[in-house]
Amino acid sequence: NRLHATDITSSSFRLLWPKLLAQDTGYYTLQYAPAAEPARKRTQQVSGAHTSLVLSGLAPETTYEVALIPESNVHFFPPQTARVTTLAEEISPVQVLISDSGPRSFHVSWAPVLDSVLSYQLLYGPLPGNSVKVLQVDGRHNSTVVENLAPNTTYLVTVTAIYRSGKEKSLSAKACTQEGEEAG
To answer: Does Nucleotide-binding appear among the keywords (predicted)?
Structure first.
């Protein structure tokens, strides 16, 4: 029954440890750093009453060295250590929605929006066909309007999430523009 991690995601995990101290017999010093970069160590103090803590804001696919040092004024406890590896980045986007479709434009939105995404790239073009246009969207946004389209046409829309790590993940959806007004 020693220090271990649960609820591991790409950017956080929960640490659990046995009850070594009480509220009034000391506190814990928690130190953690990427195993590959020990110099990036972070330190946190935790009340002696605690037996768990969530660490967040972590890098994905990274192994962390964690040390829990019980600082007791009654007994000496050896530090507890653990190695925890965060998961790969969430796959994004997981859904692409087309709405407000008109003859010459439609609205595209996607989810989820992740901190690890630098920007989104929207590729769209009529089906069948190979003329594709590209729109860049800031990573903080999750929707955009595509304009200057042909009426009564089916478009293939691909949203690509470009991660800070350089990885890319894509998802496509089809969109149809409405029939245009007859001129004359």
So the answer is: no
Domain boundaries, the chain: 4-85, 95-177
**Entry field: residues in the chain:** 184
Q: Note whether 4-85 and 95-177 share their fold.
A: yes
4-85 topology per CATH: Immunoglobulin-like (2.60.40)
Q: How far apart are CA 44 and CA 123, in angstroms?
A: 45
In tens digits, the chain (184 residues) has pLDDT values of 799 999 998 889 999 999 999 878 899 999 999 999 999 999 999 999 999 999 999 998 899 999 999 999 888 999 999 999 998 876 667 789 999 999 999 999 998 887 778 899 999 999 988 899 999 999 999 999 999 999 999 999 999 999 877 888 899 999 999 998 655 4
Q: What is the pTM of this model?
A: 0.54
- The 3-state secondary structure of 93-161, one letter per residue: CCEEEEECCCCCCEEEEEECCCCCEEEEEEEEEECCCCCCEEEEEECCCCEEEECCCCCCCEEEEEEEE
